[in-house]
TrEMBL record:
Residues 50-129 form the Peptidase A2 domain. GO terms for molecular function: aspartic-type endopeptidase activity. This is Aspartyl protease family protein. GO terms for biological process: proteolysis. SUPFAM superfamilies: Acid proteases. Gene3D superfamilies: Acid Proteases (2.40.70.10).
């Protein structure tokens, strides 16, 4: 998952867990992804990605090998990466703790060998761990917070607040983004290093395959070993509520993953850390809102 959005849509989904809340350090992996240390019983501290674009916690192949895990019988599921889908095994993880939370013994998905956040990263935390909390991503001070519902952390300059919607059954964080003045439905994916929009969104903003300024590129194979060709172009006005982003070069392509997400027939976007990575923001899952520090 060096460039691609790290979306995980299991057929069977775990429910969010409850527990004590706290804060701890965030880091960037060798591939630039947001990661943090978790404690796994019998295996000590391990680095995991923190991924709002994963509906369930998952392990990379080298992480499973290091821990000596074997597949759970009859627990296969289908995952959807940016370029396509693939059937994978699931594994019972020893007890996991993060930021004061005891997540228990999770049934986790096994990413294929092609998926990596860096050799040092063993897996990713998904909605089954994050979804009961107000999850603070402080990418200015590099801190992760899991806060109880209603316990909004203080902000010196205050917060800009926008409503979010949780995608039915999957729980992905959906919100409205404006792109050169045009509204676009977006999924916030902290496991994605690049923002992708479909061609419906690009056309709504006045960009067609024949427009000037388009560049072509190829996405390396990611979670599902599928490569994908796409375009890039600079957009001048990008916003979420009252928050305005600097002009940025964004990716355009009708990624196969837009289909199972139900975002292939209208303007849609996967919002990654190329836009959000220098911000402090809170994903309030229980309160269904996103707060961005001013």
């Amino acid at each position: 998952m060096k460039m691609s959005p790290g979306l995980l849509l299991p057929i069977a989904l775990a429910l969010p867990v409850a527990g004590q809340a706290g804060t701890q350090d965030l880091q960037r992996s060798s591939t630039g992804h947001v990661v943090t240390q978790v404690q796994i019983r019998g295996h000590g501290p391990q680095l995991f990605g923190v991924d709002t674009g994963a509906s369930a916690t998952a392990l990379y192949e080298h992480g499973r090998a290091r821990m000596g895990l074997v597949p759970e019988p009859g627990a296969q599921i289908e995952i959807y990466g940016a370029g396509g889908s693939q059937m994978i095994q699931r594994y019972r993880l020893p007890r996991l703790q993060v930021a004061g939370e005891d997540a228990g013994q999770l049934l986790v998905s096994g990413f294929p060998a092609s998926a990596k956040h860096g050799e040092e990263v063993m897996g990713v935390l998904g909605r089954d761990v994050l979804g009961s909390y107000m999850v603070e991503f402080d990418l200015v001070s590099n801190r992760l917070g899991l806060h109880r519902p209603g316990a909004l952390p203080a902000a010196t300059r205050g917060w800009d607040e926008v409503p979010i919607r949780l995608m039915p059954e999957i729980g992905f964080v959906m919100l409205d983004v404006t792109l050169d003045g045009v509204p676009v439905t977006a999924v916030l994916d902290t496991g994605a290093s690049r923002t992708f929009m479909n061609w419906h969104a690009a056309r709504a903003a006045g960009v067609t395959p024949g427009s000037a300024g388009l560049q072509t590129a190829t996405m390396a194979s990611g979670v599902t070993r599928h490569a994908f060709d796409y375009h890039t172009r600079s957009f001048q006005r990008i916003g979420i509520g009252d928050t305005a982003f600097r002009p940025s070069t964004l990716a355009i392509g009708d990624l196969p993953v837009f289909v199972p997400m139900g975002m292939d027939q209208a303007p849609g976007m996967i919002l990654g850390l190329d836009l959000m990575g220098d911000r402090r923001f809170v994903v309030d899952y229980p309160g269904k809102r996103l707060l961005i520090e001013r």
